[in-house]
Amino acid sequence: MMLTMRYLLFLCLALFIVDNAKGQPATNDTARVHQLIESAREKQQQGLAEAAERDFRQAGELAEQLNFDRGLQLYAGYYCVFLYQQVRYEEALHMGQLQLEVSERLDDKPRMGYAYNNISLQYQAQGKLRQAAEFLMKALEISSEIESLTPRDRSDRRKYYNNLSSLLLDMDDLEKGKEYALQALEIAEELQDTLAMGRSLVNVLVAEAMADDLNAAELHGLQLLAIGQSLNDIQTELTAYINLSDIYRRQKRYPLALETYQKALGLVQKAPPGNEVYILSGISSVYKDMAAYGQANAYFDRALALAEMELTKPKLIELYLSGAEIKERMRAYQEALLLRKQYEQLNDSLRNQETHNTIQELEVKYQTSEKEKALAERDLKISEQRSELERMNKWIVVAVALLVLLTILLLSGRLINQQKRKTAASEQANRLLEAQLRGEETERARTARELHDGVASILSAAKLRIHARNGEDAAAQALVGELIETAVQEIRNISHNLAPEIVLNEGFAQAVQEFCRRVNHPGLQLECYVVGELPKLDKNTELILYRIIQEAVTNTMKHAEATESIVQLVGEGTRLSITIEDNGKGFDLQQLKHTGIGLHNLSSRMQLLRGSHEIHSAPRKGTSIYIEIDALHTTSQPVGKLETQDFV
After folding, report:
1. Which of 14, 11, 12, 22 is nearest to 110 (CA)?
2. How many whole angstroms separate alpha carbon 126 and alpha carbon 120?
3. Residues 6 or more apart in contact with residue 117 via CB below 8 angstroms
4. pTM of the model as a whole
5. What's the rounded Cα separation, in Å, for the pair 283 and 85?
6. DSSP SS3 for 97
7. 11: phi > 0 → left, psi -120 to 50 → alpha, else beta; which?
């Protein structure tokens, strides 16, 4: 029976860029949306389904109230995955459609592809294979339009290929199903993503087992098990056990098959819903092949009780057929006839020739589009080569006009020299800026040490001398002591702000949070949020970013007359986003661009870091500074989890 061999794992790797919502809601409100989503995902991983759903719903309601499209897009994608894992396909389909609607509104092509993929999975689970194929092909079309693929783009394409493989295997198209599974596996190996390799391996071994290539299927099953155990990924390990058990059954190694199913049962409580039915139906098939029909019937009835709620439509086909055979052996002919009718009805609706032809036609169109794209690129290269030959011929003819040619060469040389001088000037400016920043940090560190070790020590000594003078006015001594203590504390604060050790020793995020804590006071409520895992940056970059935040907050305190301010650090992969906002009096950005030294310093430092920045402000409307930097420009980052069927 192919039920357990056709078992596919659905998980989600969805990455979204945290951005300002439409209508510019308060940043602390948008941060709350992200916090709720992160909390829901953590509870989902811990198996706390009810608590996770509460947080998901709160995040969605808050995003809708704020008209926060980016947050709504993030919520819809993650909640879609949650609902799918809870076997609530219709609700998950609604979330996928919401994800598509928001992505279209934002004109966000990559995330439109994610939504198409997620919708396809819901239709496949409901047995609507034609609609599933149509939406999956739309995701592949978006992927095909990308000319220069990033690792993330290649990872997305791997998911789409893997899901297309699953769809073709549901239609019993073994050759095409294995072909796309191998393409997905090849991309995972190029990305050196071990978990993605495992999830692509599932469809490879399924195709091999369906084609009775059991030795190859067993080797891939053991490889999948090793991946799951090495990464401590329960779902991958469970999938490996279920598939290996069915391979052993096909090899007639029945005791080993039952033993392996028992190992799977030991893990089922730690995995998402929908796994137990595969194990029960698999054990039933083993006993059926052993002619132990009583035990087979008992396990089948337990599996059938779960199947209607937990199994996708394509997986119900084999369960009905196996059950009909068992009931016949048990002489329960009426039940056998009913199961046989259910099998035939579902098989005809899912695997009819029209649906199969439609899926094949869509797949052929996609392949044709890919081939036409390759041909167009080849023709373009040929055209460029011909144009180059024509240009060479023209230069040969024009060579007789030597004076004109020499003039052109002289002009070209002058332009090249000018460009070189501009490049050299830009590099020199960067070097000068680096030297200036190093000098500033050195001077800050020296001043901080002198303040801390010199002036602060003298004031502390003066305080001790005053307290040591007995018999004088005690109230006056106390007042002077308090003033000295205040001065000492103020000097220490200044030395902490000047010294770079807090960034170098405690880390960037901790340094920013500590700085915000120090400057927070009743007149200015300053909040600091850290969302996600911040990428690793070199210490020079962290120090420059810390000084930028420090200067921006200091300007807010001095000039903005603000009562509330926020500093938000958001990590997404290799990208770091920084938002600094206040509700102060703002300023005319166009006017300040010509006179503001601070804005010029910010632009110079961001150019040095190869980052980008935006400043939004207007009189009486506060100020917002948005900074983004890619850690790949300063440090190297490893690549690396995908699944048998993948959400995005």
Report:
1. 14
2. 10
3. 135, 136, 139, 159, 160, 163, 646, 647, 648
4. 0.53
5. 23
6. helix
7. beta
Give the CATH number of domain 16-133: 1.25.40.10
Pick 501-633's CATH classification: 3.30.450.40, 1.10.10.10, 3.40.50.720, 3.30.565.10. Answer: 3.30.565.10
Residue 326's identity, in one-letter code, is: I
Token representation of residue 77: 């994608």
Q: Which residues, including other chains, have CB under 8 Å from residue 389's CB and lie 6 or more apart?
A: none
Question: What does the pLDDT read at residue 205?
Answer: 92
Let me know how many helices (H) and strands (E) the chain has, helices first: 25, 7
CATH number belonging to domain 273-352:
1.25.40
**For 414-469, what is each residue's pLDDT tens digit?**
888 778 777 666 666 566 556 655 666 565 555 655 555 555 556 665 666 566 65
Give the domain 151-266 fold: 1.25.40
The 10s digit of each residue's pLDDT in 534-588 is 898 888 888 888 888 888 888 888 888 888 999 999 999 889 999 999 998 888 8
In angstroms, rounded to a whole number, what is the distance separating the alpha carbons of residues 553 and 167?
A: 54
Pairing of strands 575-582, 564-572: antiparallel
**DSSP-derived pairing of the beta strands 612-617 and 575-582:** unpaired
Nearest to 12 by CA among 134, 107, 94, 122: 122
